[in-house]
């Protein structure tokens, strides 16, 4: 299985990352250190997770050089409240300061939905339907050297087509979305491959309350037995074999180590799991109620 993918910039993004959403303060630093020791070189965070200071400190204390670690963040700004073009650079600067670094490897528009400034959760429909002005600011951040690659998160095909219909200086290098056994999004994955867009799988194990169920899927269990690996390793390997980056979250040392060891699944086993995943009705674990159907 690929240990990295090459982005249009030529940069190589490691295929397995430690995800730090819901990794609580007081735990996330240790998780990052354990991961780096286990061989991870990719940490996926965001301004909104509220743990960038601890993540940055752990990276500096890990002894691994900054240049050897891929750091992704998602805009505090481009997360709902700070979506406006003029908010891009200040919000990015805040993430850089919190992380204690002078560049990010990847910076994402966290959600396609923008709220009107200082008006609670009122959707700004113009900015939501036309993210191009915000995207141009992100392109400027690349030119300034503050970020090396830019992308989006939680965009569906319609929103991707809408954004890329503009003549972009830099196309989105990745789209980070929920991908799991319960929500495998085969159409989006196909579209992404045809359009040279890398997908990144968040909540790859099913996120929180669905993880147990994922690890008990009969196909997952039988492949694990067959290969002598754990059910989590089967699912994480399946994601990489589908051609996506995978971002399992854990703060448990043994699981962090376990999740890093991906192996190729025999074609027959892969096909069996893929077929099972795409044959049931998809279920999203994330369904924010912001008064706009973000998935359409
Ligand atoms: P914890 O962080 O307490 O170890 P996802 O990445 O799909 O959002 O799933 C994250 C959840 O799955 C967390 O609750 C995490 O628990 C749990 N988890 C992560 N890795 C494993 C694993 N290898 N086996 C079982 N549960 C896991």
TrEMBL record:
Keywords: Membrane, Oxidoreductase, Transmembrane, Transmembrane helix. One of its GO terms (molecular function) is oxidoreductase activity, acting on the CH-OH group of donors, NAD or NADP as acceptor. Residues 22-276 form the NADP-dependent oxidoreductase domain. This is NADP-dependent oxidoreductase domain-containing protein. The chain holds residues 104 to 399 of 399 of the full protein.
